[in-house]
Structures are given as structure tokens and as C-alpha cells.
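Quick one: structure for this chain?
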Amino acid sequence: MKILVVDDDPAMRLVASIALEQVGGFEVLLAQGGLEAIECARQNKPDAILMDLVMPDVDGPDVLQTLRKHESTDKIPIIFHTAKTDPSEVRDMLALGAKGVIGKPFDPAALAEEIERILES
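Got it. Here's what it folds into:
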């Protein structure tokens, strides 16, 4: 499975990519912001996107809406990873079209399994 990890925090990108590659056996693509994520998704067609909610250039919800407007990216499942895990905030993210939400901090050993569980639901 090819997954795009999007986060403006380099440490978060590193931890997620190591966890997904070494534990989950995923192929990982990386983007440090929303604009880069949009371009990477269009060029590489990942099977899923794990994306931070809040980023300095284009935030996660705007990236999601942009990707949904293009036929080549409109079906890519997007999972937000964020510290905003209040039930009402999670409902809002799901209402926008996110496939799921993973809270920060996350358990690197369980990240791949959690993503697979969300994608299968």
C-alpha cells in the first residue's frame, strides 16, 4: 500500500514514515504542507493519505476539498492525524469527508494497523 504522509513537523513525518515502512510494510510518500500534498497526490495517486489537520500553508480540510474536486484524486481516502480529538471535532472532520481520525500523539507500533482498520471500515 502506498500512503502519503503530510505534516509540517519534520519529526512527525519521520516517526510516521518509519512506523509505516518498517512495521506496516507500506510505501511512504512525504509532504510537508498542503500545497505539496495536493501536487504529490495528483502525481503519485497514493492508496491513502495520512494528513495533519493544521498546517501553515493550506490546512487539511482545504486539501481534502481540493482533492475531492479532481477526478484523479477524489476517491483517495484521507485520514487526519491531529491533537484535536474532541468528539465534536472528530464528527466535523468525518462530515467533511475524512475516512477517519487518528489522535496525536500516536503509537508508532500500532499506526499501520490503525490505518488498515480505518480503511477497511
